[in-house]
């Protein structure tokens, strides 16, 4: 008979080679999964930084001119925009240097940035037209712009915990 009872051609010796190959494949898969978890952790860091800096800058744009007694909001807008762009550039460089991206990444990033964009747009348009320098608008709405990032961080942490 060509094979052993385990169905491998060549008998029991072949079964040992199959087990070694299977063990190597499982080790490689675990290594890939660990890289994916690190990538997810990297995106959680991205979300934490973005979700902290951008709302602070949003509040500064809305409240800065009022608190500083400025007639024009332009100096504050230019300064905070420069800070936001610097942070975004640093975050993009940070994420590009992380080599592995899971299949979840594009959907998670698109959903997070879309939700943030809608909240940020509403905050800025409504705030600059109807609530200039009004803390009752700018503080809660600045916090609201951080919520998509907080939700993504929670999702990533749950996903990582489940996958271990």
TrEMBL record:
Organism: Nocardiopsis endophytica
Keywords (A to Z) from UniProt: Membrane, Transmembrane, Transmembrane helix
Transmembrane segments: 43-67, 73-96, 108-131, 137-157
Protein name, entry field: Integral membrane protein
Taxonomy, superkingdom: Bacteria
